[in-house]
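haha ok so turns out i had the wrong file open the whole time. this is the CORRECT one, sorry everyone. sequence first:
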Amino acid sequence: MDEFMGDKDERNGLSFLFVLEGEENRTSEIRLFSVGIRAFEVRLANEQEWQFLKQIMQAKCKAFGTTMEPVGQRGITVRKTAAPSPVPPV
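then structure:
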């Protein structure tokens, strides 16, 4: 934390606490809890920060083909979207 420098324009004082769940040596889901960092302390993100982080994560999930579901008050679960079934040849 001693090298952390918050930047209001970059909003790098906002992040997620990540919890990985695995099955058979693979990550099956990621749970993310929104947090803010201020005065060298990590705390749960407030409502405005949560809305910002949620919007960013929705765009990231779409780009990477994953789904996002709410978890608790300010958390989300990210899962890989099932690959579409191949179309059988005719």
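The longest strand covers residues 26-38.
again sry for the mixup
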